[in-house]
Amino acid sequence: MASLDQLTVGQRASIEAIAGNPAVVQRLMEMGVFEGEPVEVVNFAPLGDPMEIRLRDYCLSLRKQEAACIRVKLAK
Amino acid sequence: MAVAAPSATITVALVGNPNTGKTTLFNALAGMRQRVGNYPGVTVETKKGSMTHEGQTFHLIDLPGTYSLAPRSPDEMVAVDLILGHQEGEERPDVVLSIVDASNLERNLYLTTQVLEMGVPVVIALNMIDIAQAHGIHIDARELGHRLGAKVVPIQANKSRGFDELKQAVAEACNAAKRPGAANGKSPPFPDSFEKEVRALQTEIGNGVEPFLVRRLLLDVGGYTEERVVEKHGAAIKAQVQAARQRLDAAGSGVPAVEARSRYNWIREATKGTLNRPAVRPVTWTDKIDKVLTHKVWGSLIFLVMMFLVFQSIFTWAKPLMDLLTSGVQSAGNWVGDLPFLETGPLKSLIVDGLFKGVGSVVVFLPQILILFAFIAILEDCGYMARAAFLMDKLMARAGLSGKSFIPMLSSLACAIPGIMATRVIENSRDRLTTILVAPLMSCSARLPVYILLIGTFMTVGYGWWVPGLTMFAMYMVGIIMAPLVALVLKRTLLRGETPVFVMEMPLYKFPSIRLVLRRMFDAGWAFLYRAGTMIFASMIVVWALLYFPYANDHGESYPELIAALQEKIKEPKEEIETLEREITAKTKEMKLWQERIERGERVTSGQSVLPFIRKQEIETLKAQIETIKEKVDPVEDEINQLTGKWKSQSILGQLGHFIEPAVRPLGWDWRIGTAALASFPAREVVVGTLGIIYDVGEADPREIREAEDVAGTPLGRALQSAEWDNQPGRKVFTIPTVLSLLVFFALCAQCASTLAIIKRETRSWRWPIFTFVYMTALAYIGALIVYQIGSRLS
Question: If we measure between CA atoms, which residue out of B16, B24, B17, B15 comes closest to residue B510?
């Protein structure tokens, strides 16, 4: 199982678990990043960080360090 | 439709995620009847407005956009306190209006479910239904409202659609709650294990803390509620909360996940069947545009162009407007000064040199602020700002700043005042404060006259062609490099704390609303004039006074009177000179015109062919006339300048300059430079004018210096070149090490009352402007010291 920051552009996955710094975890959950949600990697910034992901209805950008808190399962 | 006996006024609080059109809705409902204030002790601003509907008055309170009501700071606590009725000086709202984005419903409802737990009636405004429809999304508002226990009203805020139904629903919700036997609203069920812990904790704490806050206490690890409760009930509570959390973990309801799980499960139940999305997500315009705008190469290029535009507009395009304003105020001041009943003396000088100059110095910033805020409002409203932050974040983070710091820092290269005001786009308060504190280090345009004067006078003749440009560039680099360094130090010391969470939404692109842009411009301009303006104004007056008093010479005569008398003496001759000069210009034009015609081979009469020669003779005669008049005028002007110099040097500020001379000598400065530096406290350009006065060449106009072709040849330039130390005749003051130390000092110093005033306004405390002044002056002093000491040993 990988973490979100390890995926590449275009890959789709579903979120399995979120764990790490409680402030980050809570913020991610408040913004709709949650177990079971589908996620797609859209893009990385020119310097490699942050990354842009798409959830069901909207897009978020987050630092790789934060994305590392999100464990995902690659979609077939 | 009959409504039950209406209340006096209905207070409505608006909550919602950012980018849901909440501001648009608020502005559309309240119109011009709104005002901004602030809550005590926090940097959050209140936005209040009012509206009427069918005879019923509503008081509206616009709360800051947020994704959740879990407070992590005093700022975030304001919304919670307000809705619970605990906010000092505020009445508890009768209804909370929760605005949700129809194209993004589930996540938006997260916040709504929190509001539903707070014991106030809720109405849900389902905004942006047009966008949802375009994406193929259909929502059954009635059924959804039924399941959530709160009325859902579809609206389109930017076209004012659905407003009547909305107002109706709000009035009804308020009145329904007041009826006896009103049912409690619904809210998401949490697991039993959680409720058990809440009850236990509530019993422990007693009635001092509201049920909602007890829940937050349990759920928010390291949140602000913890701080608050510990303050009131002691640290013992913390251990109990921790124990409770461990028990919840063991029971499978660990925080914070239990909250998300409970809320989203309930939301999904409510949207099953009421929210219909197409099976495959349609590709939106936003997707297409983003392919370019966040592209590694194209996106970065477009970003740079965009930033260049912003910078140009503040740096160059604002100038004509600024000049217009300055000369306008100056003319007004002169007109008033010429009024017959105003006698020379402190009052007249106060009005002309203090008041009008003061007003001018405030008003001059308005064009830049308005232009910058127009740009920011457009970029933010259309959605590009988030992309800009996305592109810049890594670079800014390395420098201890945030992605959104870019525009404020860039603007500060033109002028720190709009730059600092622009830090409002940075949500995280630590990042925002850091940016505010280092923005003044960016070499602003006010430093240019100083750079040009010194570099132009001392580093052009006898130096390589590349020296002036390189020195100027070096001065800019001093600021640009110090800023991130200071930011990093601040982040590690004073502003230490956890790295703020960056997670940021990338909203859909949309056309910016003109009304919103205008409103933001107006708000920014007004805030500046009212808050900072008063401070800048006051400091100009203080400096004026310090340079004016005392104004009597050793014989008890008044300097200003002596000077005015002398000016009166040469008033007519000077006017004559002006008339003659105008004649010369006209004749020169005529002469050139005929010369060209003859050269082109046009047919001319014999009379006309001689015209150029005749005109030339006339011009020579006029010039000689001017010289004669000047022979009489120049000595008087010299006397005026000398008197002015003597006057200013014995003024309070001048005396201060003498007093601090020992402190500035290690920098290679004499008391005159020290005085000029002191006088430039309100604004850097004043140093040029003051140097002029102190070196007896009259007040030099910074604009003239900036535009002069041969700076070294201007009166001030020449005066500086020949300046010698008072007690060491023969030893020149302005050696290269001194020049460099002065340059470095002005590059790093905080000589700008306007900037400090803005910092006070934006941080709502005196602490930070004082800190900024102290640290920048210290940096400037040390920098100048190092440069001079090393420079003088090398040369």
Answer: B24
